[in-house]
Design a protein that fits this description.
Blueprint: H1 10-18, H2 24-37, H3 46-63
Helix pairs in contact: 1-2
């Protein structure tokens, strides 16, 4: 996957169809794909904690004069 996930709602798909950006068949295929793929749940694990702790150490070192 390229970049971050970009959730889209059924209402947004309907608006795209109404605006003529995509056709109804494409909207149905997108909705089916999003539904089957599911959204990746947000997580906050040890890697994130270490990253932010490291950033805090760097900011503290640079900011203390």
């Amino acid at each position: 996957m390229l970049g971050a996930a970009m959730p889209i709602s059924q209402r947004e798909l309907q608006e795209l169809v109404a605006a003529g950006v995509i056709d109804a068949g494409t909207a149905e295929r997108i909705a089916a794909h999003v539904k089957s793929a599911g959204a990746e749940p947000a997580r906050f694990d040890l890697t994130h904690t270490a990253y932010y702790l490291g950033a805090l150490v760097v900011m503290s070192a640079l900011g203390g004069s």
